[in-house]
Amino acid sequence: MFQLPPKLPLRFTTSEGEWRDVLSPNDQKPITKMQLATSKDIEELLGSLKNSQKKMKNLRPYERADILKKAATELRSQESYLAWVIASEGGKPLKDAKVEVTRAIATLELCAEEALRLDGEMIPMERTPAGKDHLAFTLRDPIGPVLAISAFNHPLNLISHQVGCAIASGCVVVLKPASTTPICGTLLQEAFLKAGLSEDFFTVIHSNVSESELLVASPEFGFVSFIGSPKVGWEMRKKIAPGTRIAMEHGGQAAAIIRNDADLESAATQLVKGAFYHAGQVCISTQRIFVHEDAYDKFLEIFMKLTSELKTGPATDEETDVGPLIKPDEVKRLQSWITEAQKDGAIIEMGDNVTGSHNQYLYPTVLTNVPRSSKIMKEEAFGPVVCINQYKDENELLEYLNSNEYIFESALFTKDLTRALRISKEISSMTFVINNHTALRVDQMPFGGHGKSGLGMGGVKYMMEEMTRIKQVILRY
Length: 477
Known about the structure:
Number of helices: 15
Number of strands: 23
Distance between the termini: 69 Å
CATH architecture of the largest domain: 3-Layer(aba) Sandwich
């Protein structure tokens, strides 16, 4: 039987900060305690970063790659345990948590590969007369200490991206995991320490909002990586020190279009997963589905049947498909949105019922005939709710979708690839998926949003570009 660590102390300080219970979303019972940093702790940590970064620069790419590979091996040695931890602290169904662990291992291995590929380029100086008798080339330098603020919904793989990319880039990193899912951060830190990384190169911190703001505003960081809500992210950006680079990965309102020539069985199968994976608590979860009027009835019938077969329950149960929301208050929020949509004219085809000792589970909910003016059609739901509407005019639909302030992922289901490629040029979307759901991500691809959905780019290679800066060397001969 697996056991969770009873306490999560801060490694970098001997002070006695406040201890706070961490609750499992499965039953709202305490599962561990985390120690919170004081403002004095943070001041001392910030004061040490410059020296730690100086030491980190002496760690060569092949040494960084070796540490990353060993950390990945350490994660691999405890795959089943890590999946159980993710299900216990984050509420992600065990079957999906296992996939996350596999991805986190692959992410660290990708970081190891990219650590060996960080290179510059030769600059052809003599393309113009001003460059005569000069040779120039570029290098990629670490940007400096990285502050990584992460989210609860992928508590191991997201931090593997943030921490792995920082180490691969030659940057020391301070990780603030989500307060609801802090255990994976501690376990990842332990994996890196066992892999041979110096303790001052990777720090895990837990803190209240006021102390967190000290971190965010510090000029000691060269880069801030934030994964979380738009409201928090855009407000935080205002507090970043001048000269500090920032990348923000927020949410979206991912939409899928079903043309009348689509394979409806395949589309429905993919979109049930895209809508209800991790109870919809994914920034690219399929929230809105638009089906051509000629295919609407058949698609809805198939989608409803598949949705009715999903099992809702504790994430640690092997059979569970849809786990709890991270907090009961999120269930209340979603139910208020559903009620508002219903008053606006939406039809609740299924769901909108709750269960659990604290009403922490919301059954998969399908809404149809949802007015575009309803909040659930304009804001990110971040829960197991999907809106399915029909459309007639494809051009009008594209115009409507392109008016959205969230620009992240969208999908199209069709057999007409020529039309699909034309729509890929017309639609406003950072990633456009053809014949698969929107909640699709592999860890080597570029990943991020535009508009209210974020700033900067994720994905191993692309995040490392964010965490390094160009240095140019010029030689006159």
